[in-house]
Design goal:
- By secondary structure, the protein is an alpha/beta fold.
- It has 2 domains: 295 residues, Rossmann fold, CATH 3.40.50; 83 residues, Immunoglobulins (Immunoglobulin-like), CATH 2.60.40.
- The protein is built from 11 helices and 19 strands.
- The strands form 4 sheets. A 9-stranded mixed beta sheet has the order 3-4-6-5-7-8-9-10-11.
- α3 crosses α4.
- The longest helix is centred in the first third of the chain and has 19 residues.
- The protein starts with a strand and ends with a helix.
- 45% of the residues are buried.
Amino acid sequence: MMKIEGRLRTVCILITAGALTWQAMPQAAADPGDPGPCTVASQTVYVNGDIETHVHYPNGDQCGTDIMAPYPGIAFAHGFSMFGLTNGAEDNAGNGQHMASWGYVVAIPVLPDDVDGRIADMQDVLCYLEEQTSTPGSFLHQQVDIERLAVAGHSFGGATVLALSARDSRVKAVVALDPVYHQGGPGGNPEIWDPDAEGPDIAVPTCILGAPPSNCNSEADYAEIYPFVGATHKTSILLVGASHCDFMDPGNWGCGLVCEGSTSTQRTDLAQKYMTAWFNYYLYLNTSDYEYLYGTEGDADVAAGLIERQVDTAPRGLTARGLMAAVALEWELYRHPIVAGYNIYRRLPGEAYSETPYAQVGRESTYTDTAVTGGQVYSYTLRSYDPAGNLHQPCDEVSAVTLVPTSWHYLPIILHTQD
């Protein structure tokens, strides 16, 4: 046992998953902004005896055939509570119920207003999900997949979950809703978290949704944080015309009292759509949600002026090295199971890349091109693809020149023949 913030806490082991073996689920291409197929139940529990936590979860096996227990678990962090005047778990019940309807166990604790205390509480909630799924008699027994734990949060809670995902290896995906890392929101306030220092440590798929600057996020922190995030797959989505309160349940009096801008149930639905699509794609490996994040459905929202989007899914670290009769390619293998393999594209000087890949490999990080001519320049780019073959972004081009043989290269062969 150890004491943090004057309270006794249980200590749980931070589990680092090894080789991930998630299975892609053949769900139908349904709008993740609509309620999902699961009926939802809710209970209030007290983690460690004192952390009031509202748990929303699928009720039994009433999700149809495509979504089955154990379900991914999500710990959700609410925003600033005005020193306890508001109940953040109640204010975000709609987010919890929506995600639970899509097959997630969502735990929303009532958090303090200091960053270290709330990060510790969120870790305790993850421990709670781990413990309860293995506890016979618990309403969560065998209901939570501890290899698919994720976090989400709004405002101060958005910064909380980003910090947590940089520190806790159990987190496998994160969504931050209009995150605020300046204490109190408006400009000039001290930072409650340092994205420059810890953002590069966030390696899991990260989605940051934002709203235009307002009283509660005047520095548009979401845009400042995004470049620091180190995840290979990350996306920033601005909800055009949204208020800071659109990411919570409509009609929230506390948020409306402090923050400016009107709220809209349509924008709340839009935020829930992208949050759910993100978790569906990266936790359930539901490849139909690719269309909402990176394909035609997301493009339609951009064209309609509903969102502005920045996407980063390109492979990293591609290098090319010219050899005697080959070009050796190497890159960083993205170990998340949403990447099923890589397409390799090749071109000669003056040519354009073909849409048809030159070669295709599985979950590998090297390829040797032997169909080459000495002294020729070859250029390459790389795209990963998901289990359904949907393509992610291409990486920057690299080039190499193959070596030209000389007589010196043949000398050892001649000498060996004379022997």
